[in-house]
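Async update (no meeting this week)

Hi team, since we skipped the sync, here's where things stand on the single-chain job. The sequence we agreed to prioritize is pasted below, unchanged from the tracker. I ran it this morning and attached the output directly underneath so nobody has to dig for it. Comments welcome in thread, and please keep replies under the output.
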Amino acid sequence: MKLPSSRLLAAASLILVACTARAATRPRIGGSLRIAMQARVSSLDPRSEDNGADRGAWTNLQALLFDRLAVLDAKDQPQPALAVSWEHDPRFVKWLFKFRPGVKWHDGSAFNSSDVVTALDGAVANLRMRLDGDALEITSPDPAPDLLVRLATEREFVIRRPQSDAPGQSPIGTGPFRLVEFQPDRHALFQANEDYWAGRPCVDRIEIDMGRPSKDQLLDLEVDRVDIVQLDPSEARRAQQDRRKIWTSSPVELLTLAFRSENPRTQDPRLREAIARSIDRAAIQKVLLQNYGETVGGLFPQWLSGYSFLFPVAADLERARQLKAQVGTPPTLRLGYDPSDFLARQVAERVAVNARDAGLILQVAPLPDPQTGGANASPEIEILRRRIDGPSLRAAARGFNRWLPFLEGPLDQPEAIFAAEKRLVESFTVVPIACVPEIIGLGPRVKNWNATRWGDWRLDTVWLEAEKP
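Output:
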């Protein structure tokens, strides 16, 4: 494929160099990086079912094993990864990618361009791929100027399926770590890839314990049982008061009230709106979220969309009471939350208090294990936390659309996304409450923490200071 001179050609140099050149000070090689997280990851397969609220942890674990064609730098600009260079036609319809030589899969076999076609076939929607010699041509039916961002941030990891059909087998990758052990929803152990094309990671191993409540994680950090933890706002504030090192992303997780639209008890839009109008988002953000994040009336935070301020967020008890009076005698509704999520429980209880001020009764109860069922297995309303894809509005909209279809047609213009978002919000089937950041507590041994503002951890650049004798 011959393309005009206006093509974009990425630099052919490595995006990551050996560990000795990646840290601000001389790094130490070796050691085990110990991580605790509240999230539960049931599969490391990028093509498996979306992990919802745990999507950030899911993607960060996958990034240890798998590479992408491109990555984003600190300024959100695409840089080479498995693809060493690329070019496109003036309409951004045809792209040609050339690949890095010398890359190996974790089983020791050589990586080649045909592997990319197999890996991405069916994963990259609406795109056609074909080999052009040693290069890969990708054709889009519509202009795709954000293709590089998409390949660098969404689910398009380059993977290879294992030949064995044994259950529990994870795909094979070319990433900075190899998988040693994986217990779904509980534990994972990764070993440094000595043959990694971008240079061996600094740490020897990464050990991850999943499903740990935020309060327990903070205790683990205080007694030096772990090096990295995921914290809820209340524990984060406590850790800051104890002068511990805290890192926060941009607000990357949506906290929302979701009605089961198929339930006959929530069919009246006036009832849904009355509950939505009663919510005191400002109090939730100040008291429960400890001023982390931001209140929202739409799906996306201000840093991502630029128009979040157009959605009202203030409570309107007078309007809520008027709507309740129109409904007559409203039913008592059940409000469920994930029992492992203390923040969701707090928000559910506060929403119930707000609703009571409007004359509405919500019964708050934890959701039972879906395998065992229970009386509250199908509540009319749920508190949900949903990870927001970044760093672009298009990526975020595509991610939400997989969870909650609200868009029709192409995602070319923010105006179209806003219009679809507005229609969804005004239906009051989903009521956004706040967007919260990912909050990470770091132990004193952790050096060169270099996460992105949208929550990619990039653990291959981290190193550990030697323990004092």
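Quick observations from my side:
The chain has two domains: 19-226+443-464, 250-437.
Residues 147 and 236 are 36 Å apart (CA to CA).
Reply here if anything looks off.
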